[in-house]
Specification:
The protein is of the alpha/beta class. It folds into two domains: 140 residues, Lyase, Ornithine Decarboxylase, Chain A, domain 1 (Beta Barrel), CATH 2.40.37; 177 residues, Alanine racemase (TIM Barrel), CATH 3.20.20. Helix content is 31%, strand content 21%. The protein contains eleven helices and 17 strands. Strands 1, 10, 11, 12, 13, 14, 15, 16 and 17 form a nine-stranded mixed beta sheet that branches. An eight-stranded parallel β-barrel has the order 2-3-4-5-6-7-8-9, surrounded by four helices. It is elongated. Pyridoxal-5'-phosphate binds next to β9.
């Protein structure tokens, strides 16, 4: 065969296989829910990227979680995952809970000021300087940290630092001990390791008081089941929790008379904590707005309630890459989902495209947080000023990136909720 024929043959073969491997057209119109939101934002939106909270869905999620919660367990709301005072207040009202878990000193002060009746537990052991800063900045005397706040402690060294702080402030600190129930990001990994912490507290009752334990079980369900099943990880986590409780009561029997807080769980394991689990409260937040990381079988009945909405600025045919302009039609030939390019307001959020269906990033063109490129087929009927909707992968950071949260109720813009300070 002549060289020219060989090249032609191979090119033909490559083109045929590219056409055979051509992805399916994934494009389509908005479903009714997003079509209505798009119309509303076209009419009444401020014309910039927004973080929408669908209040109706949020409330429905709260009711479902509450209905399934065993009567023996309280619900502690994870503030970092719902980082807005009005959002937290809304959830506190429906869940009938004043208990919040807090992870950031500016959040701690903001919540103590605005919600002086709240009951706060730290979700991570804070540097003692952050604790000192909390007391320095605290203005609202209606919030009494000696009764309403539990600091989280992981080691005897940190407990000694907090003891010094309490001494210098002339106050008593309530202490929750972090248990390592299998996540292995610190905390008490054996019942014996509890003893030094309990001894320090027993030796200085004027400044330190045990408030309870916190054991976060986020690893449960994340380990490949060939290594360890979800049920087994959960059982091991509960066993460690129980062993620590038994050790505590064995060393300090008087603790059995106290109303200690035994915190555990998180959105992924919330539904595993049935009445007989060792904790008396579960902490959750994310599942109530359900970012994509929480698309889990145990949370299947909950609906996504947080979306990014951002306007389409430009609609262009094909994708033209600078320097290789001649390939413009090639991309659409190889992939119908690249028939159109949109440039949107903003981009690069930790989120996945949600609506309309069939939107894709174009990694060849490049990324932008100012005007990102999005591709779709001709079956996506998007025009300039229409909205692209995305679902955040997680809520704790993404919800803080848009200014006030836009509250949606009955498909209409219904208010604005300021976010917590960063
Ligand atoms: C200590 C602790 N408890 C509970 C949670 C669960 O929060 P969420 O339900 O928002 O995932 C977290 C999340 O990071 C955590 O760190």
């Amino acid at each position: 065969m002549k060289r020219r024929n060989l090249i032609l043959g191979m090119t033909g073969l490559a083109a045929a296989s590219a056409l055979l491997l051509r992805p399916q057209d994934k494009g389509g119109p908005y479903p009714p829910y997003f079509s209505a939101l798009n119309q509303e934002l076209r009419r009444n939106g401020p014309g910039r990227p927004l973080l929408l909270i669908d209040k109706d869905r949020l409330l429905a999620n709260c009711h479902k979680v509450k209905a399934q919660l065993p009567a023996s367990k309280a619900f502690r709301i994870v503030a970092k995952s719902l980082p807005s005072l009005p959002l937290l207040q809304t959830v506190m009202d429906v869940m009938d809970s004043k208990r919040l878990m807090v992870f950031h000193q500016p959040h701690l002060n903001a919540i103590a000021e605005a919600m002086p009746a709240s009951d706060l537990l730290l979700g991570k052991p804070m540097p003692v300087n952050a604790a000192a800063q909390f007391y320095r900045a605290l203005k609202n005397t209606a919030f009494n940290p000696a009764l309403q706040l539990q600091w989280l402690i992981d080691t005897p060294e940190r407990l000694r630092e907090y003891q010094q702080l309490a001494t210098s402030l002339g106050t008593r600190l309530r202490i929750s001990i972090e248990l390592d129930v299998g996540l292995h990001r610190g905390g008490v990994a054996s019942p014996e390791a509890l003893k030094p912490l309990l001894d320090i507290m027993a030796g200085d009752k004027e400044h330190l008081e045990l408030a309870g334990f916190m054991g976060y079980d986020a690893h449960v369900g994340k380990i490949p089941s060939i290594i360890e099943t979800r049920a087994h990880s959960f059982e091991k986590a509960c066993a460690h929790y129980r062993n620590c409780q038994q050790a505590l009561y064995a060393w300090q029997p008087e603790m059995a008379q106290k109303a200690l807080v035994f915190n555990g769980g998180g959105s992924p394991t919330l539904r595993l904590h049935k009445a007989d689990s060792p904790v008396n409260e579960v902490a959750s937040g994310s599942c109530l707005v359900k970012p994509t990381d929480f698309d889990l079988d145990l949370l299947a009945d909950l609906e996504p309630a947080a979306f990014i909405a951002t306007p389409v600025l430009k609609v262009l045919e094909g994708t033209t890459i600078p320097g290789i302009e001649g390939t413009r039609r090639l991309f659409s030939l190889l992939n119908p989902n690249a028939e159109r390019s949109y440039f949107i307001y903003g981009g690069l959020w930790q989120a996945h495209y949600e609506s309309p269906p069939g939107l894709f990033d174009n990694s060849l063109y490049g990324k932008s947080s100012n005007q990102a490129i999005v591709n779709s087929s001709h079956n996506v009927p998007l025009h300039v000023n229409d909205q692209i909707f995305m679902r955040p992968t997680q809520s704790e950071r993404v919800l803080l990136e848009f200014g006030d949260l836009a509250v949606i109720s009955n498909g209409r813009l219904a208010g604005w909720w300021p976010v917590l300070p960063t």
